[in-house]
Specification:
Elements (H helix, E strand, L loop, with lengths): L19 E7 L16 E15 L2 E6 L3 E4 L5 E4 L6 E8 L8 H12 L6 E4 L4 H15 L6 H19 L11 H16 L6 H7 L4 H12 L3 H19 L4 H7 L5 H12 L3 H11 L1
Antiparallel strand pairs: 1-6, 2-3, 2-4, 2-5, 2-6, 4-7
Helix pairs in contact: 2-3, 4-5, 5-6, 8-9
Length: about 290
């Protein structure tokens, strides 16, 4: 991930002229069936096509099954995972709110009230609630038309339709609430890990990046992410290693060093433990699939 000055993720859009990403994903493509926790300014929509997974938003867990989905508001800490390491196929759609702001009045009256709604960090799509199911179906429509000639126009129109459903059916609360200072501390520590994962990192350094003690550091990671700081670091390193295995011809040793594992033997041991196969077999399987 590339981080901005505020430590949010700088999303790498497929086309920089159009701020959206539309992907069909498998949970097994992430180390240990868990995506790294992150946050960004973009709106995120998840639509489960098969299987199931748990989604964590600011420490709250939401179970998602086939034909269910979730809306994650701007600037919320989130990630999906499966504790049972079960496969899940899903659509992941990121849309920047600027797509909705065709005029300053629209931004003022309809976009900012939703983004600044402190009681709406996320919204689970219930299959038996018509307007929520309609949002789920719009996610599938967005995916189906992403390769059409007028895709940017059609995706923007679908996003506007989704936003209208949200605006018309949710209770808006723009009152400033007492913020959870722990979330900012956690964001700072996660940013430190993501910026320094190539180097040797100690628990004390992670805690120091949040200006807290090691005990509170571990409690924040466990309470909000369900894992220790060291496990988060390992899984983030594995994610970067998997990207290098798929997208480069670098040797296993080079990748081990570049992702902070140090030795190729230790890297191979951790990789096999989390992915069920060696780095070499993982690379071979990926190349065979393309």
């Amino acid at each position: 991930m590339i981080l901005k000055d505020d430590y949010s993720e700088k999303v790498q859009y497929d086309n920089p002229d159009y701020p959206f990403i539309v992907r069909r994903c498998l949970l097994s493509s992430y180390p240990n069936y868990a995506a790294p926790s992150h946050w960004h300014n973009d709106i995120e929509l998840i639509a489960v096509l098969s299987g199931q997974m748990t989604y964590n938003v600011n420490g709250k867990r939401i179970s998602l099954r086939k034909d269910e989905g979730i809306f994650i508001n701007s600037c919320q800490m989130h990630f999906g995972f499966s504790e049972q390491k079960e496969e899940c196929e899903f659509l992941c759609i990121l849309l920047h709110p600027v797509l909705l702001c065709t005029t300053s009045a629209l931004e003022r009256d309809f976009v900012l009230p939703v983004i600044h709604n402190h009681s709406l960090p996320f919204l689970y799509f219930h299959r038996d609630i018509d307007w929520q199911n309609a949002i789920f179906l719009q996610c599938k429509v967005i995916y189906e038309m992403k390769e059409t000639p007028a895709a940017p126009l059609k995706i923007q129109a679908a996003f506007l339709k989704i936003w209208a459903f949200l605006y018309e059916n949710m209770e808006l609360d723009t009152k400033e609430e007492a913020g959870d200072g722990n979330m900012m501390i956690l964001r700072n520590m996660i940013a430190f890990i993501q910026q320094n994962y190539k180097n040797k990192i100690t628990l004390s350094e992670i805690a120091a990046s949040g200006h807290i003690g090691q005990s509170k550091c571990c409690k924040l990671f466990s309470g909000h992410l369900g894992q220790s700081p060291n496990l988060y670091l390992t899984q983030y390193r594995l994610k970067k290693a998997m990207e290098l295995l798929k997208n480069t011809t670098k040797s296993i040793t080079e990748i081990a060093v570049e992702t902070g594992f140090g030795s190729s033997s230790y890297f191979a041991e951790i990789f096999r433990k989390n992915n069920g196969k060696s780095p070499g077999r993982y690379r071979a399987a990926f190349q065979k699939s393309i």
